[in-house]
Amino acid sequence: GCCGSDLKQYVFGGWAWAWWCISDTQRLSLEVMTILCRCENIETSEGVPLYVTGVAQVKIMTERELLAVACEQFLGKNVQDIKNVVLQTLEGHLRSILGTLTVEQIYQDRDQFAKLVREVAAPDVGRMGIEILSFTIKDVYDKVEYLSSLGKTQTAVVQRDADIGVAEAERDAGIRESECKREMLDIKFMSDTKTADSKRAFEMQKAAFSQEINIKTAEAQLAYELQGAREQQKIRQEEIEIEVVQRKKQIDVEEKEIIRMDKELTATIKRPAEAEAHRMQQIAEGEKVKQVLIAQAEAEKIRKIGEAEASVIEAIGKADAEKMKLKAEAYQQYGDAAKMALVLDALPQIAAKVAAPLAKVDEIVILSGDSNKVTSELSRLLAEIPASVHALTGVDLSKIPLIQKATGAQA
To answer: Where in this chain does the record put each Band domain (predicted)?
Structure first.
C-alpha cells in the first residue's frame, strides 16, 4: 500500500503498475501441482493392513474471494511448501476413509474410493483456496497376500465360468455341427443314389452296346482266324513236302558219307590195328614159350638139387644109423661098464647145466641148530639129484647100479 493504505490488488493473467520502493508485490503460482499421496500399513475396517498410493492434481482457484484466501495463506511460500500442506490434508482424509471401507470395496471399486476421498477432502482444501482437479488411486497392495488370495478366488471362478461357457459352446456347436453333417449326408446320399441310378442305367446301356459290338467283332475275328488257319495249313503242307524232299537228299548224302567213312576207318585204323594185334599176339606167344621154358628149366634144376640133397640126407642118415647100430652093438658088448662110462662122461655136462643158475648165487646159508640135521639135509639133496636129472635130460640115473648103491646107502 502507498502512504499507509491497506488496499490490495490481485492481478492474474495480465499486468499492473507497481511503484518501485513504494509498492510491495508478491507472486503466487497458479500452475497445476501433482501430489503423490502414500499411505502405508493402514488398517481397513476388517483389520487388513494396506499400502495405498494416490495421485492428486490440484491448483489455486482464480475466483477473487478464494484467490484472496489462498494469497493470505500461501504468499511468501514456494510451490513445495504448498504441496506439503495439501499432501498432509489429503493423506489424513485418505487414512480416515481407508479405516471405514473393506479391502474388497477399496480394491474392486477404485473409482468410487477415489471419488469418496475427493468429496471428503475438497471442502478442507477449498477453504485454503485450492481446488482438487483430480484424484486417482495408483496402487493398492498388501504384504499379507490378502489381495492375491482374492485374485486367486476370482480367477478360479472366472476360469470355471469360462470353462463352463466353452464346454457349453462346444456342446452346442457339436450338436449343430452333427445336425448339419446329418443333413449334408442325407442330401449327399440322395444325390449319390440318383447318380448311382443314372450310372447304372448308363452302364447297362453301354454293356448292351458293347455286347453287340463284341459279338460282331468275335464273328469277324473267327472268320479271319479260320481263313488264316486254312492258309497256314496250305503253307504247312507245302513246307512238309519240301522237308520230305530235303530229308531224302540228306539221307542219300549221309549213306554215302557212311560208306566213305567206313572205308577210311578200314584203311586208317582197322587194318593197322589188326596188324598191331597180330604182332602183339606173336610177341605174347613168344614170351609165353620163353617163360614156359624158363619155368621148366627152373623146375628141373630144383628137382636135381632136391634129388642131390635127398641123396646126401639119405647117406648121412644111413651113416648115423650105421653109427648108432655100431654103438648099440658096442654097448651090448661092453655091458654095464660101458653104460656107466657114458653116464660118467655126461655127468659133468649135467652138473654144469644144473649148477648154471647157482653160479649167480654168491652165498647159500642152511639154517639148522643141529649138525646131524645138516648131514641129513645134504643126504636128501643128493637123493633128489637122479630125479632132477631124469626130469631135465630123460636119463634115469636110478637104474645105474652104482647110483643105486649110493642112494641105497644114503637111505
So the answer is: 70-252
**CATH number of residue 38's parent domain:** 3.30.479.30
pTM: 0.34
In a domain, 231, yes or no: no
Residue position matching grid coordinates 490440484: 58
- Check residue 267 and report its DSSP letter: I
* Distances from the Cα of 184 to the Cα of 35, 117, 177, 178, 289, angstroms: 68, 64, 10, 10, 123
Q: Are 93 and 114 in contact (CB under 8 A)?
A: no
In the sheet with 33-43, reading across from the earlier edge strand, the strands are 33-43, 49-60, 130-141
Q: Are 99 and 39 in contact (CB under 8 A)?
A: no
- Would you say 341 and 402 are in contact if contact means Cβ atoms under 8 Å apart? no
In the chain, the number of structural domains is 1
Burial class for 346, CB neighbours closer than 10 Å (0-12, 13-18, 19+): middle
Q: What is the DSSP letter of 400?
A: S
Q: Summarize pLDDT for 218-264 with one digit per residue, the tens.
A: 888 888 888 888 888 888 888 888 888 888 888 888 888 888 887 77
